Amino acid sequence: MTTAIETQSIPSAGRNESANSEPRGLGQEVSGAVIGLGLVFIAQATLGYVGLSGWLAAGWFLLAQAALLGVAAWLAFRLLRIIRQRYSSPLNEIRRWALRMRGGNLNARLPAAEATAAGSLVHDINSLADEFQRLARDLDREVTRHTERLALKTRSLQILYDVAASVNMARDLDELLTRFLYTLVDLVNARAGVVRLLNENRQMRLIAATGLEPEVLEKEALVPVGSCLCGQAADTNQLLVDSESRSCQGYLGRSALDNTAATLIAVPLQYRGETLGVYNLFLDQNVEPGDDLRELLISIGRHLGMAIEKAQVDKKAQFLSIMQERTMLAHELHDSVAQTIASLRYRVRAMDELLPANATAKVRAELLQIRSTLDEAHTELRELMVHYRAPMDERGLLPAIEDLIDRFRRETGITLFVQRDCGRSNLPALLEMQVLRIIQEALANVRKHSKAQTVRILMRCTDGEYYRVLIEDDGTGFSKSPDSGRLGEHVGLGIMQERAQRLGGTLTIESEPNEGTRVELTFRHRRDPSHNPESKRENHHACADH
Fold first, then answer.
1. Alpha-carbon 455 to chain mean position
2. Domains of the chain: which residue ranges?
3. Three-state secondary structure along 473-513?
4. CA 443 to CA 519: how far, in whole Å?
């Protein structure tokens, strides 16, 4: 700013000669008028002396007096006119200009004056006003820039605080990532955004998206690491920017945004140097983030990486806790009921050997029935203990169901068809376990009792909240309702009903003799409305408006 002022002052030096000559002309005019008045005063005094001495006739004396008074009046009028034109009017203009400047009108200027001393002063004052206005504009720009930067810093601190608080409060990882997807889209004024998580197969699984067409989302449901910019960000552990989104065009064969180019930002979600997921933000073309925004995005990515790691650790801890309880139960069964059944089997075999040769066929048949029942109970108990010891697949519900189906096909040879209209499960581990055990019990009943040739399983998820599981077979069926019969009958079906109640759903069992059996589970796992990403986005906009 100092340099600019010095530069503006240089041209005034070139006007020194004219500026110095102008005061000289003005001084000559004023001096001439004053000297003239002085001479008139002297002439008046001389004329008065002459008149008193009688040297001049009275008529000529009066005429001379009148002439001198006229000359004095003309000189006085000229002097006043010079003072008014050269001093009073410019000073009034300067005062009015100063008042306008003080009122905030930086465009106020003095009117152009003649090439006089006042004119030079007006020119210098207007030049000073121009420089002051330029400095004011520069100051406004600096204040605006610092205000915007301060607002960004404040917004950054709010987001980081929200992320840090959510790390310990979030109950659902997908909801957390979806909520901050909308936050980042608003932060960078993006046209679209995507969040993905890295799975065990080194693929980026789509979690949520906004602003993209369904066709694009379908193609990018799973992105291998190294493909496209998001996969490259997961592979390099760095924030990447593609100003023309060429990587997406190469992977999709088209632009991700309505066939228009855009700047793509890939923000890795990291924990201890390992990328666990990626945010993709689509901005207007040739709009790149500044250094401050890059640092903020990287910091948010690291905080959310901690949230992802914590969620995975919590899920594994919950899973291990469940499996420890199940293993303890299996040990209790082995040490109590299994030992008792094994002892009974031994006693029955000993009794069979001790039967006399003349024992009746009815006794031998009854003993054989008891032995078969004990063998069956022993086998089922062993299967139950294996069932309790066998851990559920850590990858989640759907892989565990697929393993269960494959094992059922191998062991029974029954034809089994699967129809899955469910991309992924958002259920907690405890609920996933209940669903798996219901399907497992239904297939066990098919294997033991139905004599079925074909089984069909349908799994459907709607809007990530409504779940439906259908298991039906073409076996013999049964006529009694599951709730009828003596105490102890249909225990497995009763347990299935209890599991459905724990899910907050309903289990419907339909069967007719020789018409097969149909088991249908329906339930809803509703997300907490307070964690609804859309509501969070609306609240975010509301706060921003205020």
1. 45
2. 2-137, 171-308, 394-546
3. ECCCCCCCCCCCCCCCCCHHHHHHHHHHHHCCCEEEEEECC
4. 10
Structure tokens at 163: 């992320």
The three-state DSSP-derived secondary structure of 280-339 is: EEEECCCCCCCHHHHHHHHHHHHHHHHHHHHHHHHHHHHHHHHHHHHHHHHHHHHHHHHH
% the chain with pLDDT above 70: 73
Residue 377 clears pLDDT 60, i.e. is over it: yes
- Residue 84 tokens, joined: 């008014």
pLDDT-based confidence at 490, cuts 50/70/90?
A: low
What tokens were used for 252?
């999709």
Measure CA 430 to chain center: 29
Residue 527's alpha-carbon distances to 167, 197, 211, 486, 520, in angstroms, are 18, 20, 23, 40, 23
Q: What is the mean pLDDT of residues 210-228?
A: 78
Nearest to 251 by CA among 220, 225, 278, 282: 220
The tens digit of pLDDT for each residue in 47-104 reads: 666 666 666 666 666 777 777 777 777 877 777 777 766 666 677 777 888 888 888 8
Distance CA(160)–CA(302), nearest Å, equals 10
Task: Classify residue 470 by burial, with Cβ atoms within 10 Å: 0-12, 13-18, 19+.
Answer: middle
Cα–Cα–Cα angle for 342, 346, 348, rounded to 5 degrees: 115
Residue 260 pLDDT > 90: no
- CATH H-level superfamily of 394-546: Histidine kinase-like ATPase, C-terminal domain (3.30.565.10)
Q: Give residue 508's pLDDT.
A: 92
Architecture of domain 171-308: 2-Layer Sandwich (3.30)
Is residue 234 predicted with pLDDT exceeding 70?
no
Token look-up 């030096």 returns: 13
pLDDT for the residue 519: 94
Contact residues for 305 (Cβ-Cβ < 8 A; gap 6+): 268, 269, 270, 271, 275, 276, 277
Cα separation, 407 vs 412, whole angstroms: 9
**Average pLDDT of the chain?**
76
